[in-house]
Amino acid sequence: MTVSGQEPARIPLRVADRFFLAAHTGEQRLSPRIDGSLVALGCAGGLLAELILEEEVTVTPSVRPSGKGRCPDFLSWAILREIREETGHDVRTWLEYLSQAATEKVRARLTITDVLREVPVSGGWRGGSAAAWRLADDGVRNPEVDLETLFTGAETASGSGMITIPARLAEITLALLLRETGVLRQIRLPKHVTRQGEYRMESWEPRIPGPLRTLVSEVGAARGQSAITPKH
After folding, report:
1. Which of 16, 22, 53, 56 is the most buried (most CB within 10 A)?
2. Cα–Cα distance between 138 and 201 in angstroms, integer?
3. Average confidence (pLDDT) per 10 residues, the chain, 232 residues
4. Residue among 200, 118, 101, 185 nearest 151 (CA)
5. Are the C-beta atoms of residues 134 and 175 closer than 8 Å to each other?
6. Quick one: DSSP state of residue 10?
7. pLDDT at 157
8. What are the beta bridge partners of residue 32?
9. What is the pLDDT at residue 166?
10. What are phi and psi of 192, to 5 degrees?
11. Which pLDDT value is given to residue 142?
12. DSSP state of 90
């Protein structure tokens, strides 16, 4: 029930959701800022990051279930179920597997939560129809705003101990995934914000939990591998 005159509360965006939105641009029709394979890689990394942050999986170095299966949404629960059924695979294997459909699944989750809406478009001279997506409303903040706040806010300006606050870990992990997939370079930030962000990310990375560090590292390695793999 909502109080008259108030908008219903929006379901909080998760790491993969926020990555998807940051990796796309456009108002009436979203388009990716980077190659589709890298969008998929980042979405896959975001989905694994969500389970790590919720302590539903750990990396030892294989990805293993470690929680009680109390995922907040069906997509996370479905991925956790697959991990439970296929224990023993490393992070890179899961990234490769999840990347096959990660973009479509995250987009579907954003559509279900009414963050995105489908926009039918013409299929061209061949006939038929295609589809595109746009933001449902203006309630979703631009990634530039969130990143600038993260990179310059006083709250994250100091400290040398391990970072343990879940919300802060989610923000930092997202920023690192954006960096490793090349999205960050495509987002227009003032030069001084970019420099501050680079400095802070270097400081944050060794201070996040080991499983998240491994995930970020493997996403970066997977991107590098895809860049040198011959295309046939």
Report:
1. 16
2. 29
3. 49 93 91 96 98 96 92 95 94 97 97 91 59 81 90 69 93 98 95 95 96 97 71 42
4. 200
5. no
6. P
7. 44
8. 24
9. 93
10. -70, -30
11. 84
12. B
pLDDT computed for residue 200 by the predictor: 95
Cα gap 88→159, rounded to integer Å? 35
Quickly list DSSP for 21-87. Answer: HHTEE-SSS-EESS-HHHHHHHHHHHHHHHHHHTTSEEESSBEEE-S----SSHHHHHHHHHHHHTT
Q: Rounded to whole angstroms, how far apart are CA atoms 202 and 149?
A: 17
Amino acid 2: pLDDT = 43
Distance CA 15, CA 216 (A): 13
Q: Whole-angstrom Cα distance, residue 115 to residue 185?
A: 24
Tokens 């069906």 correspond to what residue?
A: 74
Q: What is the pLDDT of residue 162?
A: 93
**In what helix (H) or strand (E) does residue 129 lie, and over which residues does it extend?**
strand 129-135
Angle at 94 between CA 107 and CA 15, to 5 degrees: 40
CB 6 within 8 A of CB 66: no
Q: What is the pLDDT of residue 178?
A: 98
Taking the C-alpha atoms of residue 106 and residue 44, their distance in angstroms, rounded to an integer, is 9
* Tokens read off for 136: 């449902």
For residue 18, what are its two tokens?
Answer: 């926020």
CA 174, CA 69: separation in Å to the nearest integer? 23
pLDDT value of residue 119: 87
